[in-house]
Write a sequence for this structure.
């Protein structure tokens, strides 16, 4: 492929990506490996710790401010995740989920939106079915290779290190570009 053809294909791909992102009304994320670094930390007394990135949290807050519904869909069930969701005022918290796609379909139905209007970011094999079904799928840079192969976008950042914020900013930028284009008309 020539450089020009490659550049044209890349420009078309970015337009398609932007068009998909402009339609997003619900943003859903996995936890371990996405909002966290995939590590599970235990103390001698049995306490469990997870490290959340505050910039990812701000990305979620910015999406909410822009009017998007935010959701956590995770197989784990911990009080830590519930506390994080509460702190970020995430209205859709789904823990202990074995079939993530069913939960995502249910959210779409309850909110009167299509799967094409949902963005989902996940990192492991239990996310793949949902990632294949939504309008825009993403994975952190350090997600499993088979996950990276199927998503619309692979973040430049790792899970727990800003991947969620990166995707949030892409969504927000696509919306601001739409507003700018409307003002010009």
């Amino acid at each position: 492929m020539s450089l020009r053809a490659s550049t044209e294909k890349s420009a078309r791909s970015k337009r398609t990506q932007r068009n998909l992102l402009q339609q997003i009304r619900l943003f859903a994320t996995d936890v371990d490996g996405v909002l966290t670094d995939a590590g599970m930390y235990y103390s001698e007394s049995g306490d469990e710790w997870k490290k959340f990135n505050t910039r990812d949290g701000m990305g979620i807050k910015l999406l909410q401010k822009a009017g998007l519904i935010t959701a956590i869909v995770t197989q784990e069930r911990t009080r830590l995740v519930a506390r994080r969701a509460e702190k970020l005022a995430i209205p859709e918290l789904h823990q202990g989920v074995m079939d993530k796609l069913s939960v995502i379909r249910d959210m779409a139905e309850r909110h009167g939106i299509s799967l094409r209007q949902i963005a989902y970011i996940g990192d492991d094999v239990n996310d793949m079915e949902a990632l294949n079904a939504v309008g825009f799928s993403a994975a952190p840079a350090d997600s499993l290779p088979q996950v990276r192969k199927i998503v619309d976008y692979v973040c430049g950042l790792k899970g727990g290190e800003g991947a969620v914020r990166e995707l949030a900013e892409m969504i927000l930028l696509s919306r601001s570009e739409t507003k700018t284009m409307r003002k010009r008309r």
In short: Strands lie at 26-29, 41-42, 48-49, 69-73, 92-94, 118-121, 136-139, 153-154. The longest helix spans residues 163-184. Confidence is low (pLDDT under 50) at residues 1-10.
